[in-house]
Design brief:
Layout: H1 2-57, E1 62-68, E2 72-77, H2 79-82, E3 85-90, E4 96-99, E5 102-107, E6 112-116, E7 119-123, E8 133-136, E9 139-143, E10 148-157, E11 161-163, E12 167-174, E13 181-184, E14 194-199, H3 203-210, E15 216-220, E16 228-235, E17 245-257
Parallel strand pairs: 10-17
Antiparallel strand pairs: 1-12, 2-5, 2-11, 3-4, 3-14, 5-6, 6-7, 7-8, 9-10, 12-17, 13-17, 14-16, 15-16
Length: 258
């Protein structure tokens, strides 16, 4: 009897070890698959951004991208749903409000990657948002020789959609080339400050970017609401207001997620 009990105990221990190894191993495999899928999506977003810029500029009126969405979901959030907004304040001119949409991938873990206004932002720990970084920047240029700041925005338009199936087709279509809008500072001798306010889920990444534009000094408004990245820009070299001319170019791109 004792020998039979011994065999039963040994069998139970072996089965228990196998079960533990299966559970732990499955979790490790799932974690690795989720991480691999996220890294693959990071590369896909770089391709999408390239296609978006080509579509916005008119060099390729229509671009399509096939994506393999696994271990997460891909969402298209037009301005009405994303609530993303860029507001530019300059001299005595009325505030300029520009809506922008967002394309966003959310993994099964706490990782996210977003494409908004031509910028790619990655958040490796969405619970804290502390690790959100901008890996590809939007189109914003400053010339300290002329005191000209150019802001190019890209608005993703379309119907709200979210897909978590294996294969997804993203279609981008240009809605035509915009006309640049020019604004002159009231003070043409020294120029004036420009305040750029971005309403976004990724405020840390936007603040870091706006404070490090080549040739410009960026000062964060610490009193701004948590969903806003408000930064005042001035010329870095001459320590004066600096910006004499502001040019804004707003591109609209229609997106379909299918």
């Amino acid at each position: 009897v004792s020998e039979s009990l011994g065999y039963i105990l040994i069998f139970a221990v072996v089965v228990g070890c196998i079960a533990i190894m299966y559970v732990v191993g499955s979790q490790i495999i799932d974690s690795n698959q989720t991480s691999t899928s996220f890294q693959s999506m990071v590369q896909n977003f770089n391709v999408i951004r390239s296609n978006l810029m080509a579509t916005a500029s008119g060099s390729s009126p229509v671009m399509t991208t096939t994506l393999n969405v696994q271990h997460g979901s891909l969402a298209l959030l037009p301005p009405a749903d994303s609530d993303n907004l860029i507001v530019v304040k300059f001299s005595s001119h009325p505030d300029i409000s520009i809506p922008i949409g967002r394309l966003e991938y959310t993994s099964q873990s706490t990782q996210r990657i977003a494409l908004e206004d031509g910028a790619i932002i990655t958040a490796y720990d969405w619970d804290t948002q502390a690790d959100s970084i901008m890996t590809q920047e939007p189109r914003l240029f400053y010339s300290n020789t002329t005191g000209t700041l150019m802001i190019c925005t890209v608005n993703l338009r379309g119907n709200r959609s979210s897909i978590s199936s294996s294969f997804v087709l993203l279609k981008l279509k240009s809605s035509g080339l915009p006309s640049p809008i020019n604004f002159l500072a009231d003070d043409q001798s020294d120029g004036e400050y420009v305040q750029v306010c971005v309403k976004t889920l990724y405020t840390n990444a936007w603040k870091d970017y706006l404070c490090n534009i080549p040739g410009m000094q960026g000062d964060v408004d610490m009193a701004s609401p948590p969903e806003w990245a408000n930064v005042t820009l001035s010329d870095r070299d001459n320590h004066l207001n600096g910006v004499k001319n502001l040019t804004i170019v707003s591109y609209d791109v229609d997106a379909i997620l299918d």
